[in-house]
Amino acid sequence: MADDRFRSYHDLAAVYSRGQHFDVSARTGLANASVLILAPHGGKIEIRTAEIAEATAAHDYSCYLFEAKLPKNNRKEMHVASELYDVPEALTAVTSAEVVVALHGRRDGGDTEKTWIGGLNQELSKRIGDTLNSGGFPVLFDPPNSKEYTRTTFAIAA
Description:
Layout: H1 9-15, E1 22-27, E2 32-43, H2 49-57, E3 61-68, H3 74-78, H4 88-96, E4 99-106, E5 115-118, H5 122-134, E6 139-141, E7 152-157
Parallel strand pairs: 2-3, 2-4, 4-7, 5-6
Antiparallel strand pairs: 1-3, 5-7
């Protein structure tokens, strides 16, 4: 995002402290460790994405969470753009996964009822989107910029 304060995790960690201002967690799934559910902007950056990632991964899939917890201005202060995202635990988790599903929030002022789905793995995106649609959750496939960053991306209205 153009108004992000930091362009890397290294820069962010030089100003803010892990455990006090943000938390990072990564765990390996018990049933299918090669599937990673990722919430790189959780906590108070993109609200509810960490909780959705954790519930989706359960104990079956691997899960990575970055959770910002400043009293205010988390989106500006703690957001590192996906294309610049370099938290070591995230890079390790993504490198060792065969399938990555990244959850993002969105505040674009558009249709807040639709979940945006895109990414490089079009077959998986379609399967997940069809499941959401059949469950009563409308989906917009291939939103702007969705193919640039991860193999499969969800953007949830926040």
